Amino acid sequence: MVLTAFAPAKVNLYLHVIGRRPDGYHLVDSLVAFADVGDRLTVEPGASLSLEISGPETVGLAAVGDDNLVLRAARLLADYSKTDRGAVVHLEKNLPIAAGIGGGSSDAAAALRALAALWQVAIGEEAMLRLGAELGADLAVCLHGGAAWVGGIGDRVEPTADLPQAGIVLANPRRELPTPAVFAARAGPFGKAGRFAPMPSDAAGLARALVPRRNDLSDAAIGLVPEIAAVLARLAALPGALLARMTGSGATCFALFADRGTAEDALALLAAAEPRWWCAAGGLIAGDRRSG
After folding, report:
1. Are 30 and 150 in contact (CB under 8 A)?
2. What is each CA distance from 94 to 43, 61, 109, 221, 230, in whole angstroms?
3. Strand locations in the chain, DSSP E?
4. Which of 286, 118, 124, 289 is nearest to 200 (CA)?
5. What pLDDT shows up at residue 118?
6. Element of type H or E holding 108
7. Which of 43, 144, 173, 205 is the most buried (most CB within 10 A)?
8. Mean pLDDT throughout 244-268?
9. Is the separation of the CB atoms in 209 and 196 below 8 Å?
């Protein structure tokens, strides 16, 4: 039996930093979406647990070795279930690492789901979330797999109404940007929650709702990687762009479009103008598409 799982790119449509806990972790408020651009995993029975990686973004993972989040997730699930069954996991890596789009967390969430099915592990959502919490705060929303309001340190997830149809272009200037460095560089007062209702019915309405909101990590990220400002300017100038913003802690930025076709046309222009950047186009995932 061979199972497949999709690990989509996570996109913070806005991200407000609203406080800080005594232990130093920052509190956030964010509207998280997923794009149908991402990595893909396949899992099948094996004599032991092993990971094979292919795809255009494998180079960045070479130094990670056994600390890869996919292997860590697999070991956690094996320990939880006390299984002695193995698995061959193949990761097709299409998303850049340390890019603010939750690639590693999304991969780990996909691995947990796929291996639970392969090994026939009876595990409820709460237990799955507890395992995910050992791998990072982003696992909660990645395990959810659909649009959500995110709070706490990223571990509190509340589903939203389905997002409207919208195209998206993602761009990264080929600069890794570790999240802790960005939070450490952030200055200024804390913001407030930016949640809104109802959910707009089209991409233009969604962009209008997002305009008064922001990514509170943008200034800190640009201070560390000035190229982000150029990425934002390029995206904002693309024909049909409704909104351009950085996602997560950077350095990836995105632009929203009315539909996938307009986004793909814009991607062609961007890729021709900036051939050294990582770029991709697709659509926002309206509901839950974690597998298949």
Report:
1. yes
2. 17, 11, 16, 23, 23
3. 3-20, 26-46, 49-54, 86-92, 148-151, 156-159, 167-172, 243-246, 253-257, 278-283
4. 286
5. 98
6. helix 103-118
7. 43
8. 97
9. yes
> Mean pLDDT for the chain?
94
Yes or no: say if 198 and 120 are a contact pair by the CB < 8 Å rule: no
The mean-pLDDT minimum among 59-73, 76-90, 216-230 falls in 59-73
pTM: 0.94
**Measured CA distances, 207 to 10, 79, 183, 200 (Å):** 17, 44, 26, 9
What's the full length of the chain, in residues? 292
Mean pLDDT of 142-157: 96
Active site residues: 10, 138
**CA separation, residue 100 to residues 71, 229, 279 (Å):** 21, 15, 14
Give the pairing of strands 26-46 and 148-151: antiparallel
3-class SS string, 119-147:
CCCCCCHHHHHHHHHCCCCCHHHHHHCCC
Position 290 scores a pLDDT of 42
Distance CA 272, CA 292 (A): 31
C-alpha distances (whole Å) from 108 to each of 53, 59, 112 are 14, 18, 6
Quick check: 246 and 214 in contact, CB under 8 A?
no
CA 150 to chain centre: 13
Please determine, for residue 149, whether its predicted confidence score (pLDDT) is greater than 60: yes
